[in-house]
Design brief:
10 helices; alpha+beta; lithium; six-stranded mixed beta sheet; 13 strands; binds magnesium ion; binds adenosine-3'-5'-diphosphate; about 30% helix; five-stranded mixed beta sheet
Amino acid sequence: MAASSSAAPVLLRILSASVSVVNRAGRIIKDVMRKGDLGIIDKGIDDLQTEADRSVQHCIVTSLSRQFPKISIIGEEELDSEGKVLDEWIVTSLDSDVLAKKCPENLASIPEEKVVVWVDPLDGTSEYTQGLLDHVTVLVGIAVNGKAIGGVIHQPYYNYQVEKDVYKQGRTLWGMNGIGVFGIEKKAPCEGKRIITTTRSHSNKNVNLTIDAMKPDEVLRVGGAGHKVLLLIEGRAHAYVFASKGCKKWDTCAPEALLHILGGKLTDMHGNSLEYHKDIQYLNSGGVLATYDAAVHEWYRERVPEEVKKTLPP
Ligand SMILES: Nc1ncnc2c1ncn2[C@@H]1O[C@H](COP(=O)(O)O)[C@@H](OP(=O)(O)O)[C@H]1O
Ligand SMILES: [Mg+2]
Ligand SMILES: [Mg+2]
Ligand SMILES: [Mg+2]
């Protein structure tokens, strides 16, 4: 018998609420796409924002802060608070599958005010605007004492080649230290080949120099930090190598938490773990290096060229 929601530890309730709200977020993303006008704003160099990014952030941040007023929530998009938040976006339901899990002792007593939630309302915006829809994910990462300990990745267009009803497409993975990861099956990558995944829309000389130094047999250039970590989990790539300053803590918090629970490893290009305190710098200035298995991470880290590492101060 699952604990009643109010009796469940607050971290479990935050994870449960996050699973519920990302499913609502996925519908917003599909509604905006179907409307046909994405309301694209150019935030800077190679940095787009659509109405879906804005609406989903309002949906997730308002829903979670209403239920958990003492947590710190950091979202990618800078939105004016008067921005219109539709009542239909506010989700306060809790996902019962999550609540049915047993929260590990060391996390069960964490108070609400110690929790930092990192929200990327739409990861893979560039690909969303170009119709590469399965690159899109919604990321909600949960951090305690600076460490990514849980999170949710919603992929609204998952399985879009098979399921023709867009509102039936999609999947949600979620997990937490000591509980496990649900909604995806870990698969080992093929042997005898080295497949590296990296950015599709934010590449540069150093990104390619570093990948070349690792002598890949194949390079998968796709959008989204969340999407690339999904490729690692599902055995479609061995490593995610992004020797650039471009992505931020909301891009990596949820993917790192789930990848680590499944035995992978995500660090900066120097091999340093990423920190997720609420007052940490948002930029992942040391780049991102992730592998499907922690045991192979060092092989990639030691091949990052020195001249590239110098351009990526941790
Ligand atoms: N140079 C850069 N400038 C702005 N954003 C960057 C960037 N490099 C990476 N990013 C962001 O990091 C995420 C992963 O990048 P990529 O898809 O290229 O691998 C994307 O998140 P968003 O789509 O949420 O903005 C992308 O916009
Ligand atoms: Mg963005
Ligand atoms: Mg992102
Ligand atoms: Mg984003």
